[in-house]
Specification:
The chain is an all-alpha fold. Helices cover 79% and strands 0% of the residues.
């Protein structure tokens, strides 16, 4: 669908073709032009930085992801309303990145803020809000609050698995987190429900 909407030379079009490296290259090229044409604080610059940050995270470039997401967050906080979905999604992506760096306390703050904003701007039933709920649960698990994490991880997985609009990578990530928490709790019968056979 993105290829039809944007064309193959657009970053989203390249990603829809399964070429993450090409998508990153196109987004990086856009970042060389956008600030000159639109200004460094333009919302489109923030959006491109946020998208590139997520793709860097997905590609395993965690330091680059954190840098891009923090740049995006600074722009978005300055130009968007506090509960704008783009700002909330950037917070969630930053939380997921921070979990990979071991910065679980800041990840928890960012995930909570992102989820709260998405509940207001999109609704509890939107799959993107479920992604935020997953990040919140994962951050709670990382700080050791397993009992608070489990219901968030379970509900986010159930919602993502049931929603055909949810990206499969998000569904699988939520499943793996839920499996991990049940393994940690020694709940083998629950864990077995989420193992890939």
């Amino acid at each position: 669908m993105n290829r039809r909407l944007y064309g193959e030379s657009h970053p989203e079009g390249a990603l829809s073709l399964g070429d993450l490296q090409e998508a990153k290259a196109l987004a990086t090229a856009a970042l060389e032009i956008q600030p000159k044409v639109l200004g460094t604080g333009h919302p489109s610059v923030g959006s491109t930085l946020a998208i590139l940050g997520r793709w860097e995270m997905e590609d395993g470039n965690i330091a680059a992801a954190e840098e891009r997401l923090r740049e995006a967050l600074a722009i978005q906080q300055a130009v968007l309303t506090p509960d704008h979905p783009d700002l909330a999604i950037t917070r969630v992506d930053l939380a997921e990145t921070l979990l990979l760096t071991g910065n679980s306390q800041e990840a928890l703050v960012q995930a909570q803020m992102g989820e709260t904003s998405l509940l207001k701007s999109l609704s509890a039933s939107h799959w993107i809000t479920a992604v935020a709920r997953h990040a919140h649960g994962a951050a709670l698990q990382a700080v050791g609050d397993i009992n608070a994490a489990e219901p968030l991880l379970r509900s986010s997985y159930e919602q993502l698995a049931a929603d055909p609009a949810a990206r499969p990578a998000f569904v699988d990530k939520a499943r793996v987190s839920l499996l991990s928490i049940y393994d940690t709790l020694g709940m083998t019968s629950e864990a077995s429900r989420y193992r890939v056979q």
